[in-house]
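Hey, weird one. I pasted the Alpha/beta hydrolase sequence into the form twice and got a warning about non-standard characters only the second time. First submission, copied straight from the form history:
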Amino acid sequence: MFHRSRSPEPTVVLVHGAFADSTSWNDVARELRREGHPVVAAANPLRGLSGDAAYVREVLAGIEGPVVLVGHSYGGSVITAAAVGADNVRALVYVAAFIPDKGESALDLAARFPGSSLGEALRPTTVTLPDGSPGMEFTIDQAKFPHQFAADVPEGVAQLMAVTQRPVTGAALEEPAPEPGWRTLPSWAVVATEDLNIPAAAQSHMAKRAGAEVTELEASHAASVSHPREVARVVREVASSVKR
């Protein structure tokens, strides 16, 4: 068993996206735990959408009681897929995240609206994928990371985030999404208006399409790091609405 909670509060499961790791949720988790919410920050493999979603679904299966599932960036695609068939998920929260419909990929959605400068900041590396085939994975150039990903985060923190970023495969960003969980689950979205990875217009479009309740933050893509209290407040309100 991965996690069993006896708390009357729903468990909040936080899923990071590309170019990040679970520590990007640290301050949000601290805020939520202070209020008595059980929290699990899942380590997103970032290898492929179907496999990443399957892993998160396994994490969910080990949690007793209702879950609020939260995703950042590419993690939004992962929670959208992972929620399908996970009977304990009660709500989805997207933070500066992709909210794909069936057949859409993160790459498709990122290119649909102008305003992203991510492509210019990426560094590709040739790798061997889990199935043994050749592929590509990407990181953000460390020198460009603070401005590109975390412009409103203190410089020293942003530089450490650049060093500890985790690469994502091109296959993960290109894989089409399955039937989305937001069709049957209530959804919320935090739109980062100063995001240089996923333009705010794209975030707003996806949130509206999913029928999500929207909160706008004047924040970079790293909204969970620069505005943890505000992000935690949204998650806390969602958790309160889905209590047992």
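That's the output from the first submission. The warning seems to come from a hidden character in my clipboard, not from the data itself. The two ends are 21 Å apart (CA to CA).
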